[in-house]
Every structure is written in structure tokens, then in C-alpha cells.
Amino acid sequence: MEFGICSKGGGALLREDEFCREKRREEQWFSSWNSPNGVVDPQILPSTISSFKDLIWNNNASEMIPAYGMTPEEMARLCSEGDGGWLLSSHMEYIMNKMMTSQEHTLCFCLNATHALTRMTRLQEQLEHFKDIKRLVFTMNVGKLPDNSVYIGGDIQPGNHWTLAVVKLVTGEVLYCDSMAWGLPEELCPRLQEYTSFFDKILSPSSIKMCHTRTPVAEVHTCDPSCTNYPLQTWSDLCGVVSIITAAIATFDQPFFNFLCGPKNKGQFYLRNPTRCSKYLRLVLISWFVSGRISINNVSLKKLPKAQPVMFAQGKVKGRSTQKRKRSSSQSEGSTEKTSIKHKKEPNDVITPADIQRLAQLVHSCAF
Length: 368
Fold this sequence. Notes:
The structure is a single chain. It contains ten helices and eight strands. It is of the alpha/beta class. The chain has a domain at 85-337: Adenoviral Proteinase, Chain, CATH 3.40.395.
């Protein structure tokens, strides 16, 4: 089901009865949602939702709204699901800019939409607190090739998945956060170096810590002892939402972000399964867009889960993974078609040449 296509002017594309039917569906989407447990302030002001409805329904769908740098059709992706729910670089840029102008310790960028030299030179000249910056936070669009290698998307070869990278300038550590556990983009280090060079910080591949180990080709991610509490998504249209929300947490709520990137914990919290609260997270983004203010209490926890280390057996987490595979780059963007879940084979499931030899000897002895 795709929403967000009822903007004024859409009548040229939809008959009046279709227009009204789609608008009713959107109304239903806005009216039914639940707040997650444990959030400091789970209230979404009705006035912000009303203002957002006015923006997407009472403006021409294809005309740019200068205050937001995008069209109502693009903005409506925030309240959409499936193909229509994929977020764009324009969404990332808007929120990351709001985050950056709301504090003085972190610089926030959408990597794909930013020219490092131009932007950093300008910031260095304009910001009095530039030398006091502690962190760099990046959302980035990536893609994956058939050989399982990951690249950072561009104009020639766009990606189909959103991830997050956080650079701690004090230590030089880079945290790479991927809700699908695809692995590191090959050009990540030099791309980040374009920004860290302004702080005389040299990065190396050893500086980078992945929040989840790389998932083998054609397999579903199974956590091991090196994995963290960073959210793993089960629907492919959520990557942008997860990346923006966790980018805000990395910027404004360090204890929570440290927990997300810390040792695997059995404690329950709403981002453990972001699919269950996906509508709430989208409404939070809508509220931030309309108000122009990042209310971190909408996503911060009242209390972090107690330390409950996960027990691993043979290098794997006990229990089955429920993670769905990301659609391949050859599939249409935003596809939410359910796919079968493949589980990794346990060591005892693998037949070795020695097993075959013993089996042959047993058959031979039985025959005689």
C-alpha cells in the first residue's frame, strides 16, 4: 500500500474518487499508532500532524516548498509505506542541517549530498566553535554489488540503503552502523578523511568499528560476540528512518548511543525491533520536519536497559535470527515483499570428506 499521493494537483493523475479514497487511507494512517514503552516524551502534538497534512494535501504535489527544500510529493514519503516510504537525500539533508544548527559540538552531514571541501571550508570560516567540535555524524546512501561488496552511492551508481557513520574526533574511532549488516563500503575511510583532515585527524581502516559483522552472501545476519545493540530492520523501507533517528541519538543522547554501539544486551527497548514502532518513528520525523526542532525526548529512553550480556554458543547468538534479507540492487527500491529466511548451517550440519569416507566403509562392511 502506498500513501502520500493526495496532494493538491494530484487530480490530474487520479480521478476524483481515487483522490478521495487515497486521502481517506492517509487519514487512517495518521489516526492509528501506538507510542513505544520507555520513551521520555512519546507525545506527538496534533498540531504538527495537522500542519503536515496541510502541506501535503493543499499544495501542488510537484512544486517545491522553499522552507523545506522539497515538494509535497517528496515530503509525503514520511507518512508512506512500501515503495513510497523510501526516504531521499533531501529528507536527510533537512534533518541533518537542523541537527547541526541546534548544538555546537557535532557536525552533521548527508555524505552523498555534501561536497566536503566546499562545505567544511565554509563551516570553518563561519563557526566560532569549529575547533571545539567533538564528533562528525554522517548518514549515507550505499549499495551492494552481486559479489557482496558495498559502495557509497552517487549520481552514476546510486545506492538503495541508508546507513550511519559517527566519527569521534578525540579518539579517531569511527562507528559504522548498518541496520542490514551489509558490511563496510570500500571507499568509506578516504571519504570520511576528507572531513577529518580539517581537524588534523588521520583515519585508517583499523579506526573503524562495525556495529554488526558482515553478512555472508545469500545468508541472513546472525549476531556474534562482536555485534552490538544497534537496530536491525526487518522491512527494507525502514533504513532511512532508522538512520535519521539514530543520527539524532548520536548527536543529542550520547549515553543511549553508547548503549546502541555497546556489547550485545538482552534488555528490551523499542529500537530492538524498529518495525513494530515504524509508524511512531515516522510521526516523530514528521513532527521534527514541521516544527523545525529536534525533540530528542521523543526517542530517548527514560532508563537504559540493565546490563544483561547475551550468552553466545560456538560464536553465535542463541536463538534464530528473524532478520529479513535486503532486496538486491536489481530489485525495485523499497520493495517489502516477504522473502524466505535462510539460517546459517551449524557446524554439525556440514558433511566433510572424512564423513563420506566413513560412510563408504560402513556401507562396504554391511554389504559383506
